[in-house]
Specification:
Distance between the termini: 28 Å
Oligomer: single chain
Order of helices and strands: EHHEHEHEHHEHEHEHEEHH
Number of helices: 11
Strand order of the largest sheet: 8-1-2-3-4-5-6-7-9
Radius of gyration: 17 Å
Shape: globular
């Protein structure tokens, strides 16, 4: 199993600015839980996402001395990648690409083709300094714009990204519209065509729908999951305040039911959970 905790996804839309030191302290607690990756910052326009304006300082404040967890940040363009790669603490860049042309424009002010070109340039940049690039396929399971959805469109872009050299793709249910049939379709049809690529799941959903989504992906071979404590965050486009991120505690419980080894320090997870309560007021 490969688990990514996504406090960046929880924090980025939080209405009250979280003080920089408070973010750093929380991330350092998470670093001691034992996640494979911590998705913790975003090098994007501070006008677009004010909560992430202090990402450079936050990344520099993360302590790695007692953790093997890798640090991931999100970038949406070459400029953001240049800023992120200045930090030795950053191991992974995440790039958002939308299966919906409309959302690609709304999210990054680019067309799909323009975003794909930017990705190819960012891939060269990461490879030149020994970093890793992962791609998030947002709106992979449908969209709220009335655009046609079919799994072949996801496969079309997967083929292009794989040919360009991408080895890690996260299928993202941006607005919580994925049902079990769509999840099974994507995870049964696409990963088998590209055995050299790892496909993970980045689900947004209601709290009570967590198990069925995890189960559908898991039964089709998915072993890489993104989540956030208590499911805080999600996408404003969901138009439903109950649709948040996949809750980490639900992932842990699911893995226990499947008899999977849980390589997390659960005592430290409890500490992180309690710290999250004080930040996000749940």
């Amino acid at each position: 199993m490969f688990l990514t905790e996504c406090p960046r996804d929880a924090m980025q839309g939080w209405p009250e600015f979280i003080p920089t030191q408070k973010k750093i302290d929380y991330l350092n607690i998470l670093m001691e839980v034992g996640f494979d990756v911590l998705d913790c910052a975003s090098f994007v326009s501070p006008q677009a996402i004010p909560q992430m304006a202090d990402s450079a300082e936050v990344v520099e404040g993360i302590c790695r001395s007692r953790s093997t967890t890798q640090i991931s940040v999100v970038v949406a363009n070459i400029s953001g990648a240049e800023k992120a790669l200045k930090h030795k603490n950053v191991d992974i860049l995440g790039f958002p690409f939308s299966i919906s042309e409309t959302f690609q424009h709304r999210n990054t002010n680019k067309s799909q083709d323009q975003a794909f070109f930017q990705m190819t340039e960012i891939l060269k940049m990461t490879e030149s300094v020994g970093k890793k690039l992962i791609v998030y396929f947002s709106m992979a399971f449908g969209n709220p714009y009335g655009e046609r959805w079919q799994w072949e469109d996801v496969d079309h872009w997967a083929e292009k990204f794989v040919a360009a050299g991408i080895k890690d793709i996260r299928l993202s249910d941006t607005t919580g519209v994925a049902d079990e049939a769509k999840i099974r379709r994507l995870f049964s049809e696409i990963p088998s065509k590209y055995p050299e690529v790892i496909f993970g799941a980045h689900f947004h959903n209601r709290y009570e729908d967590s198990y069925r989504k995890l189960k559908a992906a898991y039964d089709c071979g998915c072993r890489k999951f993104d989540s956030t404590i208590k499911g805080v965050g999600g996408c404003p486009m969901a138009k439903d305040e109950l649709v948040g991120n996949m809750p980490t505690e639900k992932v842990i419980n699911f893995l226990a039911t499947e008899k999977e080894e849980i390589r997390l320090n659960l005592l430290n997870f409890e500490s992180a959970y309690n710290r999250a309560k004080s930040i996000f007021h749940f």
